[in-house]
Amino acid sequence: MRRKIAAGNWKMNGTTTALSELATLAGQIPANAPNVVICPPATLLIASAEACAGTGVSIGAQDCHMQASGAYTGDISASMVADTGAGYVIIGHSERRDAHAESDADVNAKAQQVWGAGLTAILCIGESGAVREAGTTLEVIAAQLAGSLPDAATGANCVIAYEPIWAIGTGKVPTLEQIVEVHDFIRAGLVTRFGAEIGNRFSLLYGGSVKPDNAATIFEAENVDGALVGGASLKASDFAPIIAALAAS
Ligand code: 13P
Fold it and tell me: Catalytic residue among 65, 102, 163, 183, which?
């Protein structure tokens, strides 16, 4: 009923030599594969889309601007992303929220640009370590969803990625109970806001130190429909077993 999605976020890693990893990955995708999305740096979007055409791998950007066009030196718009052949855009990643001071309102505006360009948003939310320790994770998640997810969201145009900031790139993974708690909370919030039919259609991804050896456990959670993977998406030999674990879940 819901799309299973294995998405890889290459962050600021990869030049043209990394394109060979895409070909290797495409060759290792099982017949029962979930949706596979690779989000390379913007410089590789066109070449990646060309390399993956006709394979089971889709391409996404890591960000786009909240305006459609204009005097925004160095930025790229959602329609420019669509023009590369990509189908997805990550928005609201904690590294953008932190380092570029992106607010929930900014992310909300970006989502609408993404949809205007006919693309699917991978909208990221997640609490800091301080919030986790303070015991206010669910309040923060609720506020991020309320502020950054537009009313026009559907399970077709939007995927939600829960990425606890303290788990990103640290090797620290929440317990399965913690993952279940937040994902069930997100699901319940979506059902309350959008109704059961739409709310149950959103794919929910977990992100933060997902590796080949912990993926199968994470995918046991009923409301985990896939993963947003950073470091372990850079090499096909690491990402392929994560994809296989999702296919088997
Ligand atoms: P890691 O898998 O490297 O922890 O990164 C997660 C992430 O931020 C994906 O967007």
Answer: 163
